[in-house]
């Protein structure tokens, strides 16, 4: 008899199974990758694969090297022999189903121990069935077993036959087959390091973490995708590989305590380590990439990474001229109050590649000064990254109603609306010892009728509403100690 729990004890695999080797993979950030696997075809013309992964619907394709013709590829069930060895109480009892056993069991309700004797008929992870000496069928909880004895000759190891899915490729000619498909288990997470120690030129380093839960990578080429390809059937399994035995994924562990005080002091004493030069020079960089359509691919060659491992890779570094823009945002409904400006790093991507969206850690003179997200930035596009609150720049807003036209609008449903005119004032004071460029925005429901040196725009959102959605933007440069007074008026229907 074959018991389902024996699968957990399977220690042998078919000797003639052919492994697949990951040669290339284009990694997305969502845990999927477009993978190219190489299969060395057997000289007999028949190649069997038992580790084919689960491939996304419609993305699986087979091809072969020059001189090879694939005549058929079939996913089928085949018998497989395995050896099971007991490694736990449940596994030991599974091995001995049909044997006479003697069990010492707890009786939780009576805080006592009793003995149950009989023939073991079946067992699951939670309970077992025994035909006792009187012929009655008795159930018992596995968790209540204190000791189990097999009074017949005990079985500790069993060879059995079960079945598994096998991909069989029949081909003519010598060479390799290539299997392509979108698979889960391989992804990348990018991160930026921005060094602003130099007051005019920043250094940017991109590194990534590769999460490999797919298969062992032995000299593979990885391409990290910037952009969003449309993958219609993501999450649906291709019927050709459905129910195939998945590739081993492995796990990862680790830990360790907090470094000792002396160790922390040694790291902190060398601030040069916490600069862009240190981040870049300590690792080889990928340095290659290409644009295909609307996607950009960063490349990394000869990657050695086992299943379950995580890899740390530096892809490239750049230098850019930069400055700081101080931003203030007032959202719809903010009528009064003080707001602190945000010191924002501003630069134009003058490099030879786009910058993917990722976290950005900013450092100056070896000290962390801020962290934010650097959003996707095309070549030639301006990028903004929030650094910190600018406490020396104070901004205060005050709005007041200055006019109201009663019943200015009556709708077909007899709803009546007043037209209110609102005047707003924003005062911004620069208490820094240097001039600061600023961007101040105010959003409101209504239509702007007047503004002092600001640019008013009307959003197309809410076109079926009575009131428009508007925004005013000012871009003053404030000298040290200067206060700017910005005024505006807008009209809004209220009921």
What does this structure look like?
Strands 13, 14, 18, 19, 20, 21, 22, 23, 24, 25, 26, 27, 28 and 29 form a 14-stranded mixed sheet that branches. With 495 residues, the chain is mainly beta. The longest helix has 9 residues, at 261-269. It has helices spanning 89-95, 261-269, 276-281; strands at residues 20-27, 32-40, 46-49, 61-64, 69-85, 100-107, 112-123, 127-132, 137-141, 145-150, 157-172, 176-184, 186-195, 201-212, 217-226, 288-292, 295-305, 310-330, 336-348, 358-364, 367-374, 382-410, 416-430, 436-445, 447-451, 455-459, 469-474, 477-478, 483-494. Among the domains are: 87-153, SH3 type barrels; 320-348 and 380-494, Sandwich (Immunoglobulin-like), CATH 2.60.40.
List the helices and strands and how they pair.
Elements: E1 20-27, E2 32-40, E3 46-49, E4 61-64, E5 69-85, H1 89-95, E6 100-107, E7 112-123, E8 127-132, E9 137-141, E10 145-150, E11 157-172, E12 176-184, E13 186-195, E14 201-212, E15 217-226, H2 261-269, H3 276-281, E16 288-292, E17 295-305, E18 310-330, E19 336-348, E20 358-364, E21 367-374, E22 382-410, E23 416-430, E24 436-445, E25 447-451, E26 455-459, E27 469-474, E28 477-478, E29 483-494
Parallel strand pairs: 1-15, 13-20, 18-24
Antiparallel strand pairs: 1-2, 2-12, 3-11, 4-12, 5-11, 6-7, 6-10, 7-8, 8-9, 13-14, 14-18, 15-17, 16-17, 18-19, 19-22, 20-21, 22-23, 23-29, 24-27, 24-28, 25-29, 26-27
Structural class by sheet pairing and helices? mainly beta
Count the beta strands. 29
Largest sheet: 14 strands, mixed
Question: How confident is the prediction overall: mean pLDDT?
Answer: 87
What is the end-to-end distance?
79 Å
Q: What multimeric state do the chains show?
A: single chain
Shape: elongated
């Amino acid at each position: 008899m074959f018991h389902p729990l024996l699968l957990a004890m399977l220690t042998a695999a078919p000797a003639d199974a052919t492994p697949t080797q990951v040669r290339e993979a284009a990694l997305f950030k969502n845990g999927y990758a477009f993978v190219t696997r190489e299969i060395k075809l057997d000289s007999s013309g028949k190649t069997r694969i038992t580790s084919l992964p689960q491939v996304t619907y419609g993305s699986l394709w087979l091809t072969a090297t020059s001189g090879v013709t694939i005549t058929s590829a079939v996913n089928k069930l085949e018998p497989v022999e395995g050896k099971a060895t007991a490694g736990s109480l449940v596994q030991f009892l599974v091995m001995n189903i049909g044997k006479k056993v003697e069990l010492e069991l707890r009786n939780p309700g009576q805080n006592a121990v009793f003995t149950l004797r009989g023939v073991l008929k079946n067992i699951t992870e939670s309970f077992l069935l025994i035909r006792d000496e009187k012929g009655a069928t008795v159930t018992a909880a596995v968790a209540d077993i204190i000791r189990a004895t097999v009074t017949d000759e005990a079985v500790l190891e069993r060879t059995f036959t079960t079945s598994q899915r096998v991909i069989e490729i029949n081909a003519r000619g010598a060479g390799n087959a290539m299997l392509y498909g979108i698979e889960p288990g391989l992804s990348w997470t990018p991160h930026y390091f921005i060094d602003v120690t130099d007051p005019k030129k920043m250094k940017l380093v991109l590194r990534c973490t590769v999460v490999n839960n797919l298969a062992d990578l032995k000299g593979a080429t990885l391409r990290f995708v910037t952009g969003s390809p449309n993958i219609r059937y993501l999450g649906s399994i291709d019927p050709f590989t459905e129910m195939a035995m998945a590739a081993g994924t492995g796990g990862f562990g680790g830990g360790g305590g907090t470094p000792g005080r002396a160790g922390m002091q040694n790291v902190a004493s060398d601030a040069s380590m916490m600069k862009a030069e240190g981040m870049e020079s300590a690792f080889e960089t990928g340095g290659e990439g290409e644009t295909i359509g609307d996607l950009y691919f960063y490349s990394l060659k000869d990657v050695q990474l086992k299943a379950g491992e995580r890899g740390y890779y530096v892809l490239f570094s750049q230098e850019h001229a930069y400055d700081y823009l101080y931003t203030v945002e007032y959202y719809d409904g903010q009528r009064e109050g003080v707001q602190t400006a945000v010191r924002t790093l501003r630069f134009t991507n003058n490099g030879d590649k786009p910058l993917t969206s990722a976290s950005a850690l900013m450092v100056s003179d070896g000290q962390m000064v801020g962290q934010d997200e650097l959003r996707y930035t095309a070549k030639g596009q301006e990028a903004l990254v929030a650094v910190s609150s600018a406490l020396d720049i104070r901004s205060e807003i005050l709005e007041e109603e200055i006019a109201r036209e009663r019943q200015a609008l009556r709708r077909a449903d007899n709803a009546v609306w007043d037209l209110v005119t609102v005047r707003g004032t924003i005062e911004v004071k620069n208490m820094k010892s240097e001039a600061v460029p600023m961007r101040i925005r105010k959003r409101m429901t209504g239509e702007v009728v007047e503004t002092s040196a600001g640019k008013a725009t009307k959003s197309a959102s809410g076109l079926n509403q009575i009131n428009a959605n508007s925004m005013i933007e000012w871009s003053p440069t404030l000298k040290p100690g200067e206060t700017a007074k910005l005024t505006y008026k807008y009209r809004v229907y209220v009921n």
